[in-house]
Write a structure and sequence with these properties.
CATH class of the largest domain: Mainly Beta
Number of strands: 23
Strand order of the largest sheet: 13-14-19-20-17-18
CATH architecture of the largest domain: Beta Complex
Helix content: 10-25%
Shape: rod-shaped
Number of helices: 5
Number of domains: 3
CATH superfamily of the largest domain: TonB-dependent receptor, plug domain
Largest sheet: 6 strands, mixed
Structural class: alpha+beta
Length: 359
């Protein structure tokens, strides 16, 4: 088929004109849709109905809680150029906000910010009788501690308008009270006076570890107190001696028993007047003395008479018991180190025989 060149050009122009008209129509429709004026005329109408009417007339897509918005009445007669302006004006001063998601305007509630209110309580703590201030009193306020200042004043802040207080001060009764928020409170504490009954003090025998008399340099020891000393319970005479002032003993031999600064070997240990331990003795272990046989232990640090021989050091004079002249008696003590035993049997009105063992 033969087509003239002029005919082809004319057909092309016709087609281009149709496409241009179609494009112009689409643009005009869009401009007409968004460029139209939005008229709102409402008299005490619910907000949800106003929005639904606006959506029907102007083709606006909306999403909201119908029941929530029905509680907000609208009285308005005004024109708007854009849907955003109309919606923003309608929800102004209301706990509502909107957001455009795609082509849909979503209206949702906004939770109001809760502002915590603080309540103040202040006052001072005084004596109920003299009204003197009580500085540095301890106050427990709603489980939080507060200390008054030098003048007895205090202040505290709480989110609770009711203050539960517990006030304490040394020498006063604790005061529990409940107060409302306020200032210049005066809290008085009552002195805790406790009446005491009459106390009668009577004398009694007291066991002492040592006694210093009128004799210079003389100490008398009570070996029974050794049972109360800390340790393994062994009341050896030597262990008790080395705890006394002025006595130095690094070991358990009499040659190392130094009294009142004397040299080693100058001290003397006696039992009922007999020298039992010395440098040349057969057995120098002073722990072999059975404590049940000791009645009195006297330590002479210096200035003793000639009856104690020519010693220039200290003297330990142990006096033995007399034995039981009334009825038989038995004493026994066993610990993890030693075993002590003593038995006394009367044989006459003024005499007794005593057996002792220590291992």
């Amino acid at each position: 088929m033969n087509v003239k060149p002029g005919t082809y050009i004319w057909c092309t122009l016709l087609r281009n004109r149709k496409a241009g008209f179609l494009l112009a129509f689409i643009l005009w429709a869009q401009v007409s849709l968004w460029g139209q004026t939005i008229e709102i005329n409402a008299v005490n109408d619910p907000l949800n109905e106003v929005l639904m009417e606006m959506a029907r007339e102007y083709g606006i897509q909306l999403s909201f809680d119908d029941q929530l918005l029905s509680g907000y009445p609208v009285t308005l007669k005004q024109s708007f150029q854009k849907p955003e302006e109309a919606i923003a004006y309608l929800i102004n001063d209301l706990p509502l906000e909107y957001q455009k998601i795609g082509e849909v305007f979503t209206i949702y509630p906004v939770e109001p910010e809760v502002q915590l209110k603080n309540y103040l309580l202040s006052g001072r703590v005084v004596d109920s009788k003299t009204l003197e201030v009580l500085p540095y009193s301890h106050i427990l306020v709603n489980e939080s501690g507060v200390i008054t200042d030098f003048n007895g004043n205090f202040s505290c802040v709480s989110a609770d308008s009711v203050f539960r207080l517990s006030i304490s001060y040394l020498g006063y009764y604790i005061k529990d009270t409940t107060l409302s928020a306020g200032s210049n409170y005066t809290l008085a504490l009552t002195p805790s006076l406790i009446g005491l009954r009459e106390v009668v003090i009577t004398g009694s025998v007291v066991e002492r570890s040592g006694q210093q008399g009128e004799e210079a340099g003389t100490i008398r020891l009570n070996h029974k107190i050794a049972y109360r000393l800390p340790g393994n319970g062994d009341n050896a005479v030597f262990n008790f001696l080395r705890l006394q002032p002025g006595i130095l003993a690094a070991g358990e031999r009499s040659s190392e028993l130094i009294i009142w600064g004397s040299y080693s070997g100058h001290s003397k240990v006696m039992f009922d007047g007999f020298t039992i331990f010395g440098l040349k003795n057969f057995n120098d272990n002073i722990s072999f003395v059975n404590p049940y046989l000791a009645k009195d232990i006297k330590v002479l640090k210096g200035g003793f008479s000639s009856e104690y021989d020519n010693r220039v050091g200290g003297i330990v004079d142990i006096s033995g018991i007399n034995g039981s002249t009334q009825k038989p008696s038995i004493n026994l003590n066993i610990n993890n180190m030693t075993a002590n035993g003593m038995a006394s049997i009367p044989i006459a009105k003024r005499s007794a025989i005593t057996f002792a063992y220590r291992q």
